[in-house]
């Protein structure tokens, strides 16, 4: 199992960061144009009775993994991401469910946005990846972690670019 935390410095107030993290158009642009996902599409989005934002998204990630991983996942691989923003706690929880081997692959996490010392914000993303596949589980986990870390870094760059445009 791989557990890691990524911290991103964002040059803007937490309210604007959350606004972008819940902006479907911003995220679709990020996933499609920066991260090269084949698909990022919102299937469901609604507010829960307690005020939480619920979103379900279909993703088809770029398949740049080692050959054994690609063979196991298959050519029609996609993921469903189920997420929930708790506006009272300022946390976003998510989990991705793969189209193949959903009983053996787990990817989930929690996102917080906190005030930073410099006046900006700190986006903290905690991620857990677990692949229970004999012989290749470790390769799958390390490949998924590398991919995930890159996605978080690209999100940080995209947030800073968008917020800089908003100021300028």
Q: Can you put this structure into words, describing what you see?
A:
- With 168 residues, the protein is of the alpha+beta class.
- 34% of the residues lie in helices and 38% in strands.
- The protein contains 4 helices and 7 strands; from the N terminus they run βααββαββββα.
- It has helices at residues 14-21, 24-34, 67-73, 137-167, and strands at residues 2-10, 39-47, 53-60, 79-86, 91-98, 105-115, 121-131.
- A 7-stranded antiparallel β-sheet has the order 1-7-6-5-4-3-2.
- Strand 5 (91-98) and strand 6 form a beta hairpin.
- The longest helix has 31 residues, at 137-167.
- The chain is globular and about 50 Å long.
- The mean pLDDT is 93.
Q: Mind sketching the topology for me?
A:
Layout lengths: L1 E9 L3 H8 L2 H11 L4 E9 L5 E8 L6 H7 L5 E8 L4 E8 L6 E11 L5 E11 L5 H31 L1
Antiparallel strand pairs: 1-7, 2-3, 3-4, 4-5, 5-6, 6-7
Mean pLDDT: 93
Q: Terminal Cα separation, in Å?
A: 43 Å
Total helical elements: 4
**β-sheet strand percentage:** 35-45%
Number of strands: 7
Strand arrangement within the widest β-sheet reads 1-7-6-5-4-3-2
Write a brief structural summary.
With 168 residues, this protein is of the alpha+beta class.
Short key terms for the protein model shown above:
7-stranded antiparallel β-sheet; 4 helices; 34% helix; alpha+beta; 168 residues
